[in-house]
From TrEMBL:
The chain crosses the membrane at residues 70-88, 119-141, 173-194, 248-268, 299-320, 332-354, 359-379, 391-409, 430-450, 456-475. The gene is unc93b1. The keyword GTP-binding does not apply. GO terms for cellular component: endosome; lysosome. One of its GO terms (biological process) is intracellular protein transport. GO terms for molecular function: Toll-like receptor binding. Keywords: Membrane, Transmembrane, Transmembrane helix. InterPro entries: UNC93B1. This is Unc-93 homolog B1, TLR signaling regulator. It comes from Sander lucioperca.
Length: 545
C-alpha cells in the first residue's frame, strides 16, 4: 500500500515535468538545423565566388577552406560507431544532445574569426557529433513515447512494478510522437532559407551571367553544374551585415542550448541510468557490433543507407543539377523551402499507421521515389534563361513529391525501429546508433561521388531503393513466419554492494524508522530499504517496509 501511494505521488509530479519535454525538444532541434543549414548554405555560396575568396582569404591562405571543412564534416562520422554508445551512456541522452548543440554553436561562433585553426577543428567537431546527436534524438523520442504510455497506464501492474512493457503496448504513442516531431522538425528547412532569401539574393548576378557557359542540365551532365560561372555576386556583402546574420544564428544556438538545459527532462530514471552504465565500458563498446546479428537490423541497413542518399540528393543533387541549372541561383531558396514544407506536411500521413499496417509508409515513399527517379533519368534539357520560368511549376511539383517520399521514408523508418524495439528500452541507443551510422556512411559516399555522371548517381539511388524494398519484404516475411531473431545478451549491471555489520544495521533501522514515521505523518511513504549482513550470501537480506 505504501509503495503504491508513493508511486502515485511520483506520477502526479511527473505529469507537469513531462508536459514540458516534447515541444521544447522539437523547437531545439529546429533551431539547431535552422542555423546549421542556413549558415552552411550561405557560406558555400559566398566562398564559391572567386572574387569573394580572393578578397577575403587570399592573404590568409584559405582559398580551399571549403573543401577541408566539407571533408571534416563528411569523413569524420564514419568512425561514429566506435564511440557513440560510450558517449551516450557516459553523458546520458539529454546531456549528449546538450553537448552536440554546444558543438553546433561552436561552429557558428568560429565565423566571427575565420582562420584555419578555428574553421577546420569546428567542422571536424560537427562530424564527430553528428551520429551521437541523431542517435540520442531517436532514443529520446522513443523513450518519451514509452514514458507517456507509463503515465497514462500508471495503474497497470507491470507499470507499477517497472517490468518490461507488453508487446505492442506503446506502439500507438511511438507513431504519434515520431510523426509530430518530424512535422515540426522539417520546418527547419523552411526557416533556414531566410538568410538566402532576405540577404544573399540581393547580391546575386543575373541568370544570364551565372549560366552563360552552362550547355546542359539534368541527366546528361557530369558533376554538379558544369560551366557554372565562378563569379555569382554583383558586389561583396558588407562585413557588418554578415556579422548581424551570424549573430542571429548564434542567438538560436544559445536558445537551443538553454531549452535543452532547462526544459528537457532525462530519458531514463536515475537508477536506470546507473544500470545502463554498470554493464562495463567494454561491453558497451562491443554491443553495437553484436546487434548486427539481429536479421531485422541487417535487412534494414539498405533502407538506412537510402535514407541518407535521398535527403542529400534532394538538397544538393536535384536542387543544383536540375533546379539551379535551369532556373538560376536566385530560385534555390524556393526549391528547398518547398521541399521542407512538403516534408513537414506529409509527415502527418504517417499518423495513418494508427489504422494501417506499418509497411504502408515505407513502401509508399519508395514507390513515389522510384517513379521520380525513372522520370529524372529521362529528363534533360539545355538551359534558356528567358524561358526558365516555364519550368518552375514542374520542378516545384517534383521537389514537393520528393518531399512526400522523404517524409514517408524518414518518419516510417524511425517509427519502425521504435516499434521493433519498443519493449527493449536498454537497446534503443545501440539500435539508433546503427541507423544513423549507416546514414553517415551514405553521406560519405555522396561526398565521394560528386563528380560522377548524373545518370550514374540516379542509377545508384534506384538500385539502393530496390534492394532496400526487397530486404524489407524479406524481413516482414520472416517476422510473419515467426523466424526467431538473435539478440545479444546484455550483461547484468555490476553494482558495488556495501556490507554492513549488525551494529550498523541496528543504527540504520533506527534512522529509517524515524524517517518512516515522519513521512507517514506528512501523508507520504518511506522508501524500500535493503540491508545485508556481512559475510552472508546475496540471498540473505533483511527488507524493511
Amino acid at each position: 500500500m505504501f509503495t503504491s501511494r508513493l508511486f502515485s505521488f511520483d506520477k502526479t509530479c511527473y505529469l507537469g515535468h513531462y508536459s514540458m519535454k516534447k515541444e521544447p525538444l522539437t523547437c531545439s532541434f529546429k533551431s539547431i538545423f535552422l542555423r546549421a543549414i542556413g549558415l552552411l548554405q550561405m557560406q558555400l555560396i559566398l566562398h564559391y565566388d572567386m572574387t569573394y575568396r580572393e578578397v577575403k582569404y587570399s592573404n590568409l591562405g584559405l582559398e580551399d577552406i571549403d573543401r577541408k571543412m566539407l571533408m571534416g564534416i563528411n569523413v569524420t562520422p564514419i568512425i561514429g560507431l566506435l564511440y557513440t554508445p560510450v558517449l551516450i551512456r557516459f553523458l546520458g541522452t539529454k546531456w549528449m544532445m546538450f553537448l552536440a548543440s554546444g558543438i553546433y554553436a561552436l561552429f557558428v561562433s568560429t565565423n566571427y574569426w575565420e582562420r584555419y585553426y578555428t574553421l577546420v577543428p569546428s567542422a571536424v567537431a560537427i562530424g564527430v557529433a553528428i551520429v551521437p546527436f541523431w542517435a540520442s534524438l531517436g532514443n529520446y523520442i522513443t523513450r518519451m513515447a514509452q514514458q507517456y504510455y507509463e503515465y497514462v497506464n500508471y495503474k497497470e501492474e507491470h507499470v507499477q512494478e517497472q517490468k518490461k512493457l507488453p508487446k505492442g503496448a506503446c506502439h500507438r504513442y511511438i507513431i504519434i510522437f515520431q510523426s509530430v516531431f518530424n512535422i515540426i522538425f522539417h520546418l527547419s528547412f523552411v526557416f533556414a532559407q531566410f538568410p538566402m532569401r532576405f540577404v544573399l539574393n540581393h547580391y546575386l548576378n543575373d541568370n544570364q551571367h551565372i549560366l552563360f557557359n552552362v550547355n546542359s542540365c539534368g541527366a546528361n551532365i557530369s558533376g554538379v553544374i558544369p560551366g557554372f560561372n565562378t563569379t555569382v555576386l554583383t558586389n561583396l556583402p558588407r562585413s557588418m551585415l554578415l556579422i548581424q546574420v551570424e549573430s542571429v544564428l548564434m542567438g538560436f544556438a544559445f536558445l537551443a542550448m538553454i531549452i535543452f538545459l532547462l526544459l528537457c527532462g532525462a530519458a531514463y530514471r536515475p537508477t536506470e541510468e546507473i544500470d545502463l552504465r554498470s554493464i562495463g565500458w567494454g561491453n558497451i563498446f562491443q554491443l553495437p557490433f553484436k546487434h548486427l546479428r539481429d536479421y531485422r537490423l541487417r535487412l534494414l541497413c539498405p533502407f538506412f543507407i537510402y535514407s541518407g542518399f535521398e535527403v542529400l540528393f534532394a538538397v544538393s543533387g536535384f536542387s543544383l543539377s536540375y533546379g539551379v541549372c535551369i532556373l538560376g541561383l536566385d530560385k534555390l531558396w524556393l526549391l528547398i523551402l518547398v521541399y521542407g514544407l512538403s516534408c513537414s506536411i506529409f509527415s502527418s500521413l504517417c499518423l495513418g499507421l494508427l489504422r494501417l499496417p506499418r509497411w504502408v509508409c515505407l513502401m509508399g515513399g519508395a514507390a513515389v521515389h522510384a517513379v521520380l527517379l525513372v522520370a529524372l533519368l529521362c529528363f534533360s534539357l539545355c538551359p534558356h534563361p528567358d524561358k526558365s520560368t516555364q519550368y518552375l511549376g514542374p520542378l516545384l511539383v517534383i521537389i514537393a513529391l520528393w518531399g512526400l517520399g522523404t517524409a514517408l521514408n524518414k518518419t516510417g523508418v524511425s517509427i519502425l525501429l521504435g516499434m521493433l524495439y519498443a519493449e527493449e528500452k536498454e537497446r534503443l541507443d545501440f539500435v539508433y546508433t546503427i541507423y544513423h551510422w549507416w546514414q553517415a556512411i551514405a553521406i560519405f559516399i555522396v561526398y565521394l561521388w560528386s563528380n560522377l555522371p548524373m545518370r550514374a548517381k540516379l542509377s545508384i539511388l534506384l538500385a539502393t531503393l530496390l534492394l532496400a524494398c526487397y530486404c524489407y519484404w524479406v524481413m516482414e516475411r520472416r517476422l510473419a513466419s515467426k523466424v526467431p531473431f538473435r539478440l545479444p545478451r546484455i550483461p547484468r549491471p555490476r553494482h558495488k554492494v556495501t556490507n554492513h555489520s549488525p551494529a550498523q544495521i541496528v543504527s540504520h533501522c533506527q534512522t529509517y524508522l524515524r524517517s518512516a514515521m515522519s513521512a507517514l505523518e506528512n501523508g507520504l511513504d518511506a522508501p524500500l530499504t535493503i540491508y545485508r549482513y556481512r559475510g552472508e550470501k546475496p540471498s540473505g537480506m533483511l527488507v524493511f517496509l
